[in-house]
Amino acid sequence: QHDYLGNAYFGVSPFQVGERRVEWRLVSERSAPPGASRRERLARALASGGVTLRLELADYHGPWRRPRDEDFHGVVRIVLSRLLDGDPATLRFDPFRAGRGLVPVGFVHAMRRLTYASSQQLRPTR
């Protein structure tokens, strides 16, 4: 929570990708330099050579067995080029937009559907 690049980010529940049920994670390829806040550390990392994240997947084996690090395989590298200072009200995320055949499945995702829809409608416009 104190460093954007010092964490591994996991999807809360599995996704169906074709015939496979998978788990996703996003990891940084390097740590951030020192700074007073996580935003400052991220900005310094961008200024000192950039930030590259890997989106990885592993086969899902049920809620009681989390994949090990070696189970994850890279799918894509994401290169961040700058911080955006745009209007936060324009940001939207909806895991149910199943683009490219990535379909959220499972109990937790089912509970989230109404929450995401409600949060988008209740967001301030500015």
Concise summary:
This protein is an alpha+beta fold.
Explain this structure to me?
13% of the residues are buried. Strands 1, 2, 3, 4, 5 and 6 form a six-stranded antiparallel beta sheet that branches. Helices cover 21% and strands 28% of the residues. It contains two helices and six strands, in the order βββαβββα. By secondary structure, the chain is an alpha+beta fold. The mean pLDDT is 84.
Indicate the percent of residues in helices.
10-25%
Largest sheet: 6 strands, antiparallel
Low-confidence stretches: none
Order of helices and strands: EEEHEEEH
What is the CA-CA span between the terminal residues? Answer: 26 Å
Radius of gyration, taken over Cα atoms and rounded to an integer in Å: 17 Å
Residue share in β-strands: 25-35%
Instruction: Please tell me the overall pLDDT.
Output: 84
Shape: globular
